[in-house]
Amino acid sequence: MQLRGMCKVIIGTIAITLTVGVSSIKSERILADTDTITFSDVNGHWANATIMWAADLGIVKGTGDGTFGPNRNVTEAEFVTMLFNSFPEMKIPIVPSRPWYTKYYTYALTTMNWPVSLAAASKPVLRGQVASIVAASQGQLLSMDKAVQYLLDHKLANGKTAATVAGFGKEAPLTRAEAVSFMKNLLDQGVTLSAAKGVVEEDKLKRNETVRDDAEFSIRGIAIGDSEADLVKNLGQPIRKDLSEYGFQWYIYNKDYKNYAQIGVLQGKVVGLYGNTTKWQSKHGIKVGSTAVEVKKQYGASLTEIQKGNTIYSIMREAGEKDIFLLDDAYTTIFYDIHVNYTVTAVQQIAKEVELSLRGFAGKPSKELSQSFERQDFDLVNAVRVRMGHTAFIWADDAAASARKHSVDMGSNGYFAHENLAGKSPFDRMKAEGITYSSAGENIAYGQQSAIFAHEGWMNSEGHRKNILTDFKRLGVGVGLSEKDRVYYTENFYTP
User: Fold this and answer.
1) Residues forming CATH 3.40.33.10 domain(s) in the chain
2) Domain formed by 367-495, architecture
3) Can you tell me the distance from the alpha carbon of 78 to that of 72, in angstroms, rounded to the nearest whole number?
């Protein structure tokens, strides 16, 4: 498996110290004497008055075509922006970069300690997650159910069907009309925004740390064969659901990268597990840091092939980077860190019937699968960075655009190199996307069946590993799937 890396650093530093204060004075608002704002689709809507109130105050805008879209889903980035817009006394430092919500997320994460995730920024936000964010804005880092109860107790929200935790509709996407209603409730109650202290409560901590005696491997208490209902009961709804190359959905739990987990679900049953943090367990004591010798002593020799129908697939084991075993009717891949004495760094399990059903290599090419690989790779990088004591990267749409174009170009034109056929280097390509950087780097990979295998391969290549663990600030990932069952991956890193 061929991997190449490139890192170019331009030396130059500048330090700026900002003192940030949060006003405790309630904001008073005076409507400007301007042209009346109108929307063609809110007359008769239950939130009509609140929508017009929010538009007049500049908390929210229309969709640009004379409508408001009151029933349209809101992304987490849009909700966080509305929240800050509702409290203009909050002076958000300007961050001259893309995407547009970067300054809000930087402030929410680093200054306010709110439970938001850059990986979820462009996804529809669920009402339960909104409850957690709003509670945090009042200084309360709570589990989702407790956050919902806090909002109800303090009249900061109403339930969707009833003013109870069960009736709150925490798993329902938030609409634009509901979002402005949250803002109205906050301001009507005279609250201000606060930084949250501590860490989010883990109601299921005991379950998540328990070693299952009925399964060889489990992640945060979940094992192959568990029901989807049991998964959601114990870990809650995932931040997002990603398509896998097998056709099942990965439930992505990335709210806290220290507890990162991917749980594969198909037809209501857990069929896949992946973890590269310390939150997975083995009933025989195999864990992050165990040696390859200990693994083989416990499980025997690694598989060298898998037969699917009449086809035998050989298993490539690059320089001892992984071993594969059939355990508990699941193909179990144990990944090693060759730079730390061939010790265990991650584990993946795929149910036997699911693995045997996959024909070909990387699944059916699709835009959805490409996007899934991109977001997963970003999460995998951040999870291992946090585990190793580094800060998480900020997602960069501009870097992702550059990376994606390069991956697609390599796949379409049949080459594998940092310099494209037009002679453009990674840094030329990043500049073409409008990126201004003080340092930048790129990783590329080709042929791995998923983001998981690409990431683990990069971590075992010294140059790629350096890019992943260096002090760049932002990362964008782009994936190209060709019709010839080939996958191209590109990571573009930079620091403004």
Assistant:
1) 217-357, 367-495
2) 3-Layer(aba) Sandwich (3.40)
3) 12
